[in-house]
Amino acid sequence: MQPFQNFTGVVAPMDRANIDTDALIPKQFLKSIKRSGFGSYLFDEWRYLDHGEPDMDCSQRPLNPDFILNDPRFSSAQILLARENFGCGSSREHAPWALADFGFRVILAPSFADIFFNNCFKNGVLPIQLDSEQIQSLFEKAGCATPLQIEVDLSVQLLTLNNGDQIPFTVDAGNKQRLIEGLDDIGLTLQQADAILEYEARRKVEAPWVFA
Amino acid sequence: MSAKTLYDKLWDAHIVRVDDTGTALLYIDRQLIHEVTSPQAFEGLRLAGRQPWRASANLAVPDHNVPTTEQERAAGITDPVARIQVAALGTNCATFGITEFAMGDLRQGIVHVIGPEQGFTLPGSTIVCGDSHTSTHGAFGALAFGIGTSEVEHVLATQCLIQRPSKTMFISVDGALGAGVTAKDIVLAIIGEIGTAGGTGYVIEFVGDAIRALSIEGRMTVCNMTIEAGARAGLIAVDEKTIDYMRGRPFAPSGELFEQAAAYWRTLVSDDGAVFDRVVHLDAASIAPQVTWGTSPEMVLPINGQVPDPAAESDPVKAASIRNALNYMGLTAGQPITEIAVDKVFIGSCTNSRIEDLRAAAAVAKGRKVSKNIKLALVVPGSGLVKEQAEAEGLDQIFTAAGFEWREPGCSMCLAMNADRLEAGERCASTSNRNFEGRQGQGGRTHLVSPAMAVAAAVNGHFVDVRTL
Ligand code: SF4
Q1: Is position A188 within any domain?
Q2: Is the predicted ipTM greater than 0.90, yes or no?
């Protein structure tokens, strides 16, 4: 995984609660056995007027002019602003793959679904939970004619808006370290192989049926 | 020692190590694998030159993409992309020494149906799958939750996951359910009560007379939809029903080892006085058959309800959600649920495709006919073994005589990755678990109900209270 670098990006406001992973990346794209190339199909059913299928050339497809990411102001947004329970539904990691592939690196919402939240950190995407009033005020700023830009500093856990306002945020220490260092979780866990073997040896005595 | 919740007991028993930030390395006893969320995980193993830590801890089955008609099963999957994915599962399992119930194997079926059916799901174990409805297995007093593909790879390679403890919620459904009210109605009522984000950050333990009275299959239905309440996992304490269910299952222990396991399993209950972070009570007698009207499972009403009016909602975000949902669903504020006409009916999915679900559906279908207004009514058993059992009981005859199609096992129209789907604007009474926009096909409109309510809608052409039939 690429280490997470601080950056300044445009905020795309998606004023909807309960945006689910079926909306983020519809099921037909889950048939792919690859991990990349999902960005063109992010929010497929909202973004295009026709029905999308895997391997379609999206540059030829009719765009939904009312969809926020089709607005040229937001087409290169790196920060997504949304409402409650973002990422609910299916566990598909294709959702953060599609977000990251599109170019999103930060999602701001008042709450996130657990599995999606976890999946983000595995893919260099930082989900930030803010309280509802902060989110509301960001929506008001992001809806203006000039897009809202935010500088994201993960090391000091601070958002700086282009009007100078600052919003501190919290992030789990382990997740933060993994993002900043771009660590490979599996490699780290395998460094603890002895502890795992020890645990197994103990459990084989306590609960032998698990290993039968 | 202080009183522990069931969750605490399961968590404590699986900790390999905890670091100073409170993050644990949690041992995973079992992993279920399906074709959609695993190819990139196997590819990751291959690229890193890694082997599964314990191949026998995994069981794989194709379910999401498989066709449900006999013709297509015999001829091979028509959709080339899906065919490649199902084939990839087979190749990956063969390469890495993982047991797979491939298409054509009688034991093939929906991953959350076959795990329990085979006794692969063990009480007291930690169980994961790259699928959010892994919460189903919590019905056995197991800590079971869905994970993403990176974590599937992590479990394959290390048999562990990096986890932080969840908060605990106690949901008690007190008293007895009325006639015609089922486990599905309980869980929909709970979601209506706490909301789809109500369980975020929690593991929910379901307790109370109405839960205890449920069969193991009913308990699976309740735990299955815990994820729709936003919770990581659902749990139901072990009792003699759990232990009886386990006896004689192919992957379950047998003989002396079974008795030893059962003695441990009986301790898998929350201690008296254990403290939960949140407590919710519901009165079972007040739960009516439920029908969702919107595009989120929390948008649910009793059958005698009326579609809500956004103008009556003071919260602007909620009012906007209601307006969006009414628009997508093609409904008008104030419309009685019983006046909503349906086009298709789907009985199946990991929520409601087990033998008891099919029996309940057949009991309503018997001697009745699917309404002429219904374009398609499907019954898709959860596994080959459920199908075989249903046929032995003559349920397939009841369904086909009533005008239902009787299909091969798989996820089918629950998420419409195969040919079973809704067309834009079509309305479906579905026993599945998600009514999101496009879930059952782009532009399709889903109403979640119990199996009995789905059949009642099929024979009447619109929703009706199954208790009045
Ligand atoms: S039946 Fe539906 S919810 Fe269950 S595993 Fe299959 S697709 Fe997922």
Answers
A1: no
A2: yes
Eight-state DSSP code of residue B206? E
User: What's the predicted TM-score (pTM) here?
Assistant: 0.95
Whether residue B197 and residue A84 make contact (CB cut-off 8 A), yes or no, is yes
* Cβ separation A174–B200 shorter than 8 A: no
The enclosing domain of A145 has a CATH number of 3.20.19.10
Residue A91 DSSP code: -
Question: Is B158 in contact with A28 (Cβ distance < 8 A)?
Answer: no
Residues of A in contact with B44 (CB under 8 A): 186
Interchain proximity A18–B321, CB inside 8 Å: yes
Å from CA of B466 to ligand 1 middle: 25
Q: Total structural domains in chain A?
A: 1
Residue numbers in chain B where pLDDT is lower than 50: none
> With a 6 A CB cut-off, is B433 part of the ligand 1 pocket?
yes
Residue B341 backbone zone (phi > 0: left; psi -120 to 50: alpha; other: beta):
beta
Res B1: pLDDT: 61
- The 10s digit of each residue's pLDDT in B170-192 is 999 999 999 999 999 999 999 99
Structure tokens at A2: 């690429």
Mean pLDDT, residues A73-90: 95
Distances (CA, A) of B231 to A131, A132, B97, B220: 20, 20, 33, 15
B439 lines ligand 1 (CB under 6 A): no
Give the structural domain span for A15. Answer: 7-181
Give the integer Cα–Cα distance in Å for B153 and B168: 28
Pick the closest to residue B40 from B132, B202, B148 (CA basis): B148
Task: Identify the closest residue of chain B to A112 by CA–CA distance.
Answer: B200
Could you give the CA distance from residue B23 to residue B8 in angstroms, rounded to a whole number? 15
Span from the CA of B348 to the centroid of ligand 1 (angstroms): 9
CB B451 within 8 A of CB B184: yes
Residue in B33, B35, B37, B63 to alter for ligand 1 test, most ligand atoms within 8 A of Cβ: B63
Q: Kindly state whether residue A209 falls inside one of the protein's structural domains.
A: no
Question: Is residue A92 a part of any domain in this protein?
Answer: yes
Of A89, A91, A186, the CB nearest to B147: A91
For residue B136 the two structure tokens come to 């189903």
Structure tokens, A34: 């690859």
* Bridge partners (DSSP) listed for residue A48: A63
The per-residue pLDDT for range B282-317, each reduced to its tens digit, is: 999 999 999 999 999 999 999 999 999 999 999 998
- A165 part of a folded domain: yes
Q: Which residues of A touch B252 (CB under 8 A)?
A: 209
